[in-house]
Automatic annotation (TrEMBL):
This is 3-isopropylmalate dehydratase. Its EC number is 4.2.1.33. Belongs to the LeuD family. LeuD type 1 subfamily. GO terms for biological process: L-leucine biosynthetic process. It comes from the Bacteria. It is an enzyme of class 4 (lyase). Keywords: Amino-acid biosynthesis, Branched-chain amino acid biosynthesis, Leucine biosynthesis, Lyase. Pathway: Amino-acid biosynthesis; L-leucine biosynthesis; L-leucine from 3-methyl-2-oxobutanoate: step 2/4.
């Protein structure tokens, strides 16, 4: 996965409490070839009109939205079924971070395993940020994972980014858990060699 130190970007606001994984990517697309990318399926059903055409009112379909790599979402984003494809679709779309009051537990962990940074921000701060963005076109937010801070625009200040230390280290280095384990290969091999030397019967 792509390493993440910090990301500064305009923010797209995705409305809807309890936006579940089926809204993020409908189940019928899970059979599609992952190698071709899932970005075309992101928010597929809620971002289109009755005729199946992109709805210009949907936030990610608006002019300039393609420049945004950070989303602001509502409470319990990513709830529902445990499909990692919901994270794939966001990452394939170029989304690097999602800010919201809370996330579905499985979605939160899937995000970390794929280099997508989920930032928990209290409801009042999320609402203040949404209000600021509505009044200041082009305002940006910085997700500084290296410093462990979310830098908000205007006078909204900063907020700590709280994610597990192992996940943070993996994302900063652009490594998944298997790749992180492989960085310890010399120590693993040294340990195994010493163990065999002390217990020769293990190598029979």
């Amino acid at each position: 996965m792509k390493a993440f130190l910090r990301e500064t970007s305009p923010v797209v606001v995705i409305p809807g409490v309890n936006c579940d994984t089926d809204q993020i990517i409908p189940a019928r697309f899970l059979k599609e070839d992952r190698a071709k990318g899932y970005d075309g399926f992101l928010f597929h059903d809620i971002s289109r009109d009755a005729a199946g055409n992109p709805d210009p009112a949907f936030p990610l379909n608006r002019p300039g939205a393609d420049r945004a790599t950070i989303l602001l979402v509502e409470d319990n984003f990513g709830c529902g079924s445990s499909r990692e494809a919901a994270v794939y679709a966001l990452v394939d779309r170029g989304i690097r971070a999602v800010i919201g009051p809370s996330f579905g537990d499985i979605f939160f962990n899937n995000a970390l395993k794929n280099g997508l940074v989920p930032v928990r921000l209290p409801v009042a701060r999320c609402e203040a940020l949404e209000d600021y963005l509505a009044k200041h076109d082009g305002a940006t937010v910085t997700v500084d994972l290296e410093a462990g801070q979310l830098v908000l625009p205007g006078a909204l200040g900063r907020h700590p980014i709280e994610i597990p230390s192992l996940a943070r280290d993996c994302i900063l280095r652009g490594l998944d858990e298997i790749e992180m384990t492989l960085t310890f290969m010399e120590r693993i091999e040294s340990f195994e060699a010493a163990r065999i030397a002390d217990n020769p019967w293990l190598g029979r």
